[in-house]
Amino acid sequence: MGNLNRRKRIDTGEGDWVEIQPLSVEEVRAVLKAARNAKPGEGEGEEEASGYYLLQAARERIVAWSDAEPVTPENVGLLPLEINTLVMHAMLEVGETPLLTGSPSTATSMESPAE
């Protein structure tokens, strides 16, 4: 399959699963930037607009699932919120390393252990 075509399988419970095409680091940055700039609709706040943008981006990453029905935009739209949320979190996960949001640590691996 190769590194560029990897898929990530998300366990959605009761033996069901959804597979997504993970984002590259550049794609994560672009999605997060676009979410921050999402324009709220009528009666919608900025946070709600950003969250909805992220959910839509996550839905677009679904490439397969355990359901007998085909993966189509209409069927993806029928997924429960809890599965959408699992997909969104999996889409934004970058390996085991969390995205940095604060200041870097001053600790280094060069420090010697306390005696």
Note down, in words, how this protein is organized:
The protein has helices spanning 25-36, 46-60, 73-76, 81-92, and strands at residues 8-13, 16-20, 62-65. With 115 residues, the chain is α+β, with helices and mostly antiparallel strands. It has a three-stranded antiparallel sheet. Helix 1 packs antiparallel against helix 2 and helix 2 packs across helix 4 (81-92). Mean pLDDT is 84; it is low at 96-100 and 105-113.
Computed structural class: alpha+beta
Strand content: 5-15%
Supply the number of helical segments.
Answer: 4
Helix content: 25-40%
How many domains? The number is 1
Please list the strands of the largest sheet in the order they lie side by side. 1-2-3
Helix and strand run: EEHHEHH
Determine the N-to-C terminus distance.
49 Å
Count the E strands.
Answer: 3
**Sheet of most strands:** 3 strands, antiparallel
The low-confidence parts are: 96-100, 105-113
> What would you call the shape?
globular
List the helices and strands and how they pair.
Blueprint: E1 8-13, E2 16-20, H1 25-36, H2 46-60, E3 62-65, H3 73-76, H4 81-92
Antiparallel strand pairs: 1-2, 2-3
Notable characteristics:
115 residues; alpha+beta; three-stranded antiparallel sheet; 3 strands; 13% strand; disordered C terminus
TL;DR?
The protein is an alpha+beta fold.
